[in-house]
């Protein structure tokens, strides 16, 4: 049955669902809630606090009044709860309150405010008394999209569960019973429509165990997959190579490099994931590997997610690579003379290529591609990664990510998955100092910036929009900064510039010719300029935590004391900014990041979409992780009896030769 055959789905709704990456009925019931609201317990007004939303029951006492106040259109009416009177106000919404009828009692869900002997409620959600699905139970909330409200989505999910595909059960009834687990179907029902908090917790926990288990079986399959043997000859003098660097590798870097080289020499092509927090120095590990491949006559390609990053990786590593007598090139969609570039690649005249998606175009081919590196792995879809790997014959595959993995899980999963971790930052780093600055304190901020400029440091200024009306758009900040910092060179960098401009600006910033770079999140990943030691982020609360952490990671990359100023529009800074101020640790930050669902996802082979089937490894407890492994080993001992491998294969699309990580 197709999605559109489900009751309640027409063309419009189907399109809206597609926007959420929901394409099948299974996608629909596997669309995990983001959070929950406990609307199950009724509250009475005298006992209510003002800062919490509650479920109330009120009777409508008056007709609807309209009133205009400035730019607001107010609709209001009066209601009662025993002796208490409530004024219910809807701002800019004429239609919703029209459904409330005089003399009738409804359930409401809202916060209240006490004002002049009255209670007031603003734009409250309401429902008929018997409609427990809206108010009166625990409600799952989901990321929504235009044209699809919560009520509709919930209805559709409920409908979809009627068509649950029993093949999605990973282990059989006996095994489930042995481990005292419920069927996945039951758990799905609970996570969408929980009866009690206790049931919900149990179901969520079992779903996580189940999903991790699925990954474990998949890893097992991949481990035992057939492969074409390789016999690479790699000879190199590592101390000599490392001597050319102007720093010593950290222990984590060295260990990772050795693990990578060992893999490359084994008869099974490498498939390794390199993890390390922002700034831990993953790039150089990849570059060194590429150099070693190149001096032995094998080509390698490194794919990165943005043009800006490709340019900068290329510029930064060019001299070092060339010092070995090797040829390195850059390819992006705007590269000039692509024809020659492609010919050179096909003839093997280029040893190392760094590029964007342009690398996976049809007509790019290699003579002897033996190493594929994928930086910022999570930014690519699995198909893109696969396409690059298919340009070589059985290439060795290295992916890099800053996605944090809990140590407890890492230790266990390392037995199944080849994974290297750089768990320390280079030595000379001073911790970045993070400050939250209210936008009313601009003078203070500018003073700090002047001081850094006088010390010859460079500054990034980031905004969340390019040319909006907003005072803090890139364009408006540019104008402002031009005026304030008259003696300094200020440039803008954003996605709308043409590639030549981008390249020039990046080069100039790297060389230190530009003092202040006003930019967007195009610099979020990878960019690396040591002398830049100040990061100013405007509209800081508008960014996700992980983005803020990444952005901040652009400074503190050299020996200089670095600062990150989060400019907040609110008087009291958000919790998000406070967390950032307190911690420099990517793992800790990710743990807090509710937006980053599935932040600890290891197998991004699962590419249905953002919210689907992402396991929130980060929030898994040790007991849950242990349980999944316990079941895995138990079934393994029993020759995987009762494990639904057909589903696992289908689910992970194994036939298409999916690449791990
Ligand atoms: P990430 O892991 O975030 O990709 P990068 O590879 O961009 O980090 O490295 C961050 C910066 O640290 C770069 O400027 C790099 O040259 C520098 N770096 C890497 N390793 C070391 C080291 N062992 N000692 C000093 N600096 C290093
Ligand atoms: Mg990087």
What does this entry look like structurally?
The protein is of the alpha/beta class and 661 residues long. The chain has 21 helices and 23 strands. Strands 2, 3, 4, 5, 6, 7, 8 and 9 form an eight-stranded mixed β-sheet that branches. A seven-stranded parallel β-sheet has the order 13-14-12-15-16-11-17, sandwiched between helices. A six-stranded parallel β-sheet has the order 18-23-22-19-21-20, sandwiched between helices. Helix 3 runs antiparallel to helix 5 (184-192), helix 5 (184-192) crosses helix 6 and helix 6 (197-223) crosses helix 20 (622-637). The protein is globular and about 85 Å long. 42% of the residues are buried. Residues 594-615 and 655-661 have low confidence and may be disordered. Adenosine-5'-diphosphate binds at residues 247, 249-250, 253, 276, 278-284, 426, 526, 528, 530, 557.
Note the beta-strand portion.
15-25%
Would you tell me the structural class of the helices and strands?
alpha/beta
Largest sheet descriptor: 8 strands, mixed
Count of DSSP-assigned helices: 21
**Overall number of strands:** 23
Q: Into which percent range does the helicity of residues fall?
A: 25-40%
What are the low-pLDDT stretches, counting only 5+ consecutive residues below 50? 594-615, 655-661
- Mean pLDDT, all residues: 86
Shape: globular
How many angstroms separate the termini? 31 Å
Bound molecules: adenosine-5'-diphosphate, magnesium ion
Q: Compute the CA-based radius of gyration.
A: 28 Å
């Amino acid at each position: 049955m197709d999605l559109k055959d489900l009751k309640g789905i027409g063309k419009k709704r189907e399109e809206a669902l597609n926007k959420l990456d929901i394409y099948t009925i299974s996608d629909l019931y596997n669309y995990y809630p983001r959070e929950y609201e406990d609307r199950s317990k009724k509250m009475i007004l005298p006992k209510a606090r003002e800062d919490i939303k509650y479920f109330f029951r009120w009777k409508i006492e008056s007709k609807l009044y309209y009133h205009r106040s400035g730019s607001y259109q107010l609709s209001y009416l009066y209601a009662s709860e025993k002796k208490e009177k409530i004024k219910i106000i809807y701002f800019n919404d004429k239609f919703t309150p029209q459904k409330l009828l005089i003399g009738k009692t409804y359930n409401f869900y809202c916060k209240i405010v006490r004002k002049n002997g009255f209670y007031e409620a603003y734009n409250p959600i309401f429902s008929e008394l018997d409609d427990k699905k809206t108010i009166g139970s625990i409600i799952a909330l989901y990321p929504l999209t235009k044209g699809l409200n919560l009520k509709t989505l919930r209805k559709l999910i409920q409908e979809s569960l009627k068509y649950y595909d029993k093949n999605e059960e990973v282990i059989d009834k006996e095994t489930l019973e042995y481990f005292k687990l419920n069927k996945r179907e039951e758990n799905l029902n609970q996570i969408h429509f929980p009866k009690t908090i206790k049931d919900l917790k149990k179901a969520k926990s079992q779903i996580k165990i189940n999903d991790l288990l699925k990954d474990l079986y998949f890893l097992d399959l991949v481990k035992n997959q057939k492969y074409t043997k390789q016999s690479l000859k790699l000879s190199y003098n590592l101390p000599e190579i490392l001597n050319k660097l102007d720093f010593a590798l950290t222990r984590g870097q060295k260990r990772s490099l050795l693990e990578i080289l060992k893999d490359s020499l084994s008869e099974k092509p490498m498939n390794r994931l390199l993890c390390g927090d922002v700034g831990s120095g993953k790039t150089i590990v990849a570059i060194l590997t590429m150099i070693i491949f190149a001096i032995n006559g094998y080509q390698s390609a490194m794919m990165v997610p943005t043009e800006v990053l490709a340019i900068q990786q290329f510029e930064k590593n060019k001299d070092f690579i060339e010092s070995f007598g090797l040829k390195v090139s850059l390819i992006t969609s705007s590269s000039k003379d692509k024809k020659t570039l492609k010919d050179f690649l096909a003839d093997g005249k280029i040893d190392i290529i760094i590029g964007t998606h342009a690398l996976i175009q049809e007509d790019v081919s290699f003579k002897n591609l033996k190493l594929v590196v994928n930086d910022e792995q999570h930014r690519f879809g699995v198909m893109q990664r696969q396409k690059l790997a298919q340009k070589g014959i059985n290439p060795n595959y290295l992916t890099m990510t800053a996605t944090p993995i809990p140590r407890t899980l890492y230790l266990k999963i390392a037995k199944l998955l080849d994974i290297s971790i750089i768990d320390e930052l280079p030595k000379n780093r001073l911790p970045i100092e993070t400050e939250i600055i209210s936008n009313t304190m601009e003078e203070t901020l500018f003073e700090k910036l002047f001081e850094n400029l006088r010390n010859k440091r460079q500054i990034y200024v980031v905004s969340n929009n390019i040319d909006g009306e907003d005072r803090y758009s890139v364009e408006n900040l540019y104008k402002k900064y031009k005026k304030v910092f008259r003696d300094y060179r200020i440039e803008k960098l954003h996605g709308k510039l043409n590639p030549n401009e981008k390249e020039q600006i990046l080069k100039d910033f790297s060389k230190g010719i530009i003092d202040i770079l006003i930019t967007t999140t195009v610099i979020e990943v990878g960019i690396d300029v040591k002398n830049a030691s100040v990061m100013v982020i405007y509209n800081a609360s508008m960014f996700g935590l992980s983005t803020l952490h990444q952005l901040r990671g652009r400074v503190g990359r050299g020996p200089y004391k670095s600062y990150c100023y989060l400019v907040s529009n609110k008087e009291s800074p958000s919790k998000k900014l406070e967390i950032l101020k307190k911690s420099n640790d990517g793992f800790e930050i990710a743990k807090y990041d509710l937006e980053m669902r599935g932040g600890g996802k290891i197998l991004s082979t699962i590419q249905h979409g953002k919210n689907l089937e992402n396991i929130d490894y980060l929030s898994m407890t040790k007991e849950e992780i242990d349980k999944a492994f316990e079941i895995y080993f138990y079934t393994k001992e029993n020759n995987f009896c009762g494990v639904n491998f057909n589903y696992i294969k289908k689910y992970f699309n194994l036939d298409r030769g999916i690449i791990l990580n």
